[in-house]
Amino acid sequence: QVQLVESGGGLVQTGGSLRLSCAAPESTFSITASRWWRQAPGKQRELVADISVNGSTTVLDSAKGRFTISRDRGKNTVYLQMNNMKPDDTAVYYCNADLLRGGSSYYEHWGQGTQVTVSS
């Protein structure tokens, strides 16, 4: 129903950094919780990171110490900061979020996906 707006993907060399952004399309929506997923060709989709409504975070084991998920309530935007990137990080990354507008909650809305490619 509501498509989130993703940005920040691109090509980066091994060891480089990228920051992905995910925002609600309208300022009337508020992001309460969010997740980042990724899927590489021929591979299973995996949960990369998530942030709860209270701000607690979880990061995929292989990305711990390198990836950080955060939220800026002022901009109503969720970020995935990716540092020290590896070729195995190459995938299409998808943002998923729960939204709040007025007194109603809307769950599991998705972004369009953004390609991240890490060269060796």
Helix and strand arrangement:
Elements: E1 5-7, E2 10-13, E3 18-23, E4 30-39, E5 46-51, E6 57-59, E7 67-72, E8 77-82, E9 91-101, E10 104-110, E11 114-119
Parallel strand pairs: 2-11
Antiparallel strand pairs: 1-3, 3-8, 4-5, 4-9, 5-6, 7-8, 9-10, 9-11
Number of helices: 0
Helix/strand/pairing category = mainly beta
Shape: elongated
H/E topology pattern: EEEEEEEEEEE
- Count of individual beta strands: 11
Fraction in helix: under 10%
Rg, rounded, reads 14 Å
Biggest sheet, open or closed, and with what strands and sense? Answer: 7 strands, mixed
User: In angstroms, what separates the terminal alpha carbons?
Assistant: 38 Å
Query: On the 0-100 scale, what is the average pLDDT?
Result: 94
Enumerate the spans where pLDDT stays under 50 for 5 or more consecutive residues: none
The percentage of residues in β strands lies in: over 45%
In terms of quaternary structure, what is this?
A: single chain
